[in-house]
Amino acid sequence: MTAAKPRVVLGVGAGIAAYKACELLRRLTESGHDVRVVPTRDALRFVGEPTWAALSGRPVASEVWSDVDEVPHVRLGQDADLVFVAPATANLLAKAAHGLADDLLTNTLLTARCPVVFAPAMHTEMWEHPATRANVATLRSRGAIVVEPASGRLTGADTGKGRLPDPAELFEVARRVLARGDLAADLAGRHVVVSAGGTREPLDPVRFLGNRSSGLQGYALARTALARGARVTLVAANVTLPAPAGAEIVPVGTAEELRKAVIEAAGSADAVVMAAAVADFRPAVRRPSKIKKSESAGPDPVELVRNPDILAELGERRRPGQVIVGFAAETDDVLANGRAKLARKGCDLLVVNQVGEDLAFGRPDNAAVVLAADGEPTEIPRGPKEALADVVWDLVITRF
């Protein structure tokens, strides 16, 4: 027997970003989802009905008067596994927050008992207006996931926060929410800080001391937290990956820059996960010009000094109820070194994983043992880094 396709209602608001929803629709249908597009009446001014019907392979309606015998204003929401609204305009967010139902999409939102995701897109002033912020807070308090808009070029010459995130990243949100079902918003109302990537300590204007961390595990932690409803601050050290939809990205380079950004963001965070690979040492002196190779002598020795211990400092600064998670990348004596580090750092959880050639760094999979300051270790078998991330958040949630 063939498994039923996940049923998705893609709501489309009347914003210029509606054209981006075509790419989201394509990714959903090509990955095996049964998608019914429900645009608002004015959304069809931006992208017409034939386009939505051709891409989805399903009829398109915006009014409750179409196919009345099928009672679509009730049935669509009842039957859906996910309702995803992109773009969600300020007007549409206001209607949803106040329970208005004057078209097929707003009726569907009222009848849906599945996870609901809104991806807002509007001008910065509209996004920052107290009315919009209140409406977003209301929707989140009811369990809806509202993805933070991206920053960048808006309509016309304007630039700021309010841009619809990349459709590929919105698809990842949809995929993760569908995977978790009714548990999707268990981090709603929480602010989490995640560090990712690897720091670089300059030797001169050309060279640096660094490591092989790609940022994949930290970005997986950010994506899974976003799909579970959290507000995410992602401190990214030298990472070139696409930004997860809805995350506030703070780019950094060195260990000291990462320390400053994490400590500042942690002041309002419910949890901090230090997944970044932070250099233990840095050159005592940064040369102002490129170090030249001498033909007659070997290189001058490089004096190193110790970098600040960010994880230990987070443990000392922690607010009541705040959960601190560290990562330990080990090459040998993995568990012994991990337990010693857990005792030194004062964190709640320590994710210990073995690294090396073809292990962890730059790979899509990972395996780890999570050591807890207050309980038994949790072994996570090798699998996608998203799966490991979900286990970490599961353990964090039990400690809130």
TrEMBL record:
Binds 1 FMN per subunit. One of its GO terms (biological process) is coenzyme A biosynthetic process. This is Coenzyme A biosynthesis bifunctional protein CoaBC. It comes from Thermomonospora umbrina. The gene is coaBC. NCBIfam families: coaBC_dfp (TIGR00521). Residues 1-191 are annotated as: Phosphopantothenoylcysteine decarboxylase. Residues 187-397 form the DNA/pantothenate metabolism flavoprotein C-terminal domain. One of its GO terms (molecular function) is phosphopantothenate--cysteine ligase activity. In the N-terminal section; belongs to the HFCD (homo-oligomeric flavin containing Cys decarboxylase) superfamily. Pathway: Cofactor biosynthesis; coenzyme A biosynthesis; CoA from (R)-pantothenate: step 2/5; Cofactor biosynthesis; coenzyme A biosynthesis; CoA from (R)-pantothenate: step 3/5. It catalyses: (R)-4'-phosphopantothenate + L-cysteine + CTP = N-[(R)-4-phosphopantothenoyl]-L-cysteine + CMP + diphosphate + H(+); N-[(R)-4-phosphopantothenoyl]-L-cysteine + H(+) = (R)-4'-phosphopantetheine + CO2. Residues 192-400 are annotated as: Phosphopantothenate--cysteine ligase. Catalyzes two sequential steps in the biosynthesis of coenzyme A. In the first step cysteine is conjugated to 4'-phosphopantothenate to form 4-phosphopantothenoylcysteine. In the second step the latter compound is decarboxylated to form 4'-phosphopantotheine. Catalyzes two steps in the biosynthesis of coenzyme A. In the first step cysteine is conjugated to 4'-phosphopantothenate to form 4-phosphopantothenoylcysteine, in the latter compound is decarboxylated to form 4'-phosphopantotheine. Coiled coil: none annotated.
